[in-house]
Amino acid sequence: MSGDSNSNISVTASSKAQAMENCETTALQKHVMFFDRNNDGIIYPSETFQGFRAIGCGLLLSSVASVFINLGLSQKTRPGKPFSFKFPIEVKNIKMAKHTSDSGVYDKEGRFVPTRFEEVFAKHALTHPHSLTSDELKNLLKSNREPKDYGGWLAGYTEWKILYILCKDKNGLLHKETVRAVYDGSLFERMAKENASKKQK
């Protein structure tokens, strides 16, 4: 009997691993998973706050970001579910919260589109081919705007402005590899490690 039990456990574990392989995690999901601090598939405002603090943001910015992001995205990621004052964001449905007036680097399913990413720098990185200046970033945002899409304008501006403030170099340049790392969330992990290392010194 014990042999059968071990066999069943092995099959179950194998089936779960196979299911995880078959369930592709999109770039957009990876982008937000850093903020799912307990890895339960749900991001609450407190986790958004903790995530921003982890990458080195101050109390004010982290507080404002957690309110703005969770209030704006929560219900969009919970179709058919009642309103919740806990403002949870469901990672699996994050594609439903993709805002308009964006660069198109994520497709409608939340997948990364390399050609659209390269297009951003081909069109707007005119001073340095692999970096964006502050003015070039402003031009990028303007080119992404859809008519009277004020919510999309605000979302796009907020995302890129925070990225620029946190990640520009000493010459005021936002580098291509930094922007690329934002799209799959790997930048957040790197920033958190660097911030933790600074605190230990």
Automatic annotation (TrEMBL):
<protein>
    <recommendedName>
        <fullName>EF-hand domain-containing protein</fullName>
    </recommendedName>
</protein>
<dbReference type="InterPro" id="IPR011992">
    <property type="entry name" value="EF-hand-dom_pair"/>
</dbReference>
<feature type="transmembrane region" description="Helical">
    <location>
        <begin position="52"/>
        <end position="73"/>
    </location>
</feature>
<keyword id="KW-1133">Transmembrane helix</keyword>
<keyword id="KW-0472">Membrane</keyword>
<comment type="similarity">
    <text>Belongs to the caleosin family.</text>
</comment>
<dbReference type="Pfam" id="PF05042">
    <property type="entry name" value="Caleosin"/>
</dbReference>
<dbReference type="InterPro" id="IPR007736">
    <property type="entry name" value="Caleosin-related"/>
</dbReference>
<keyword id="KW-0812">Transmembrane</keyword>
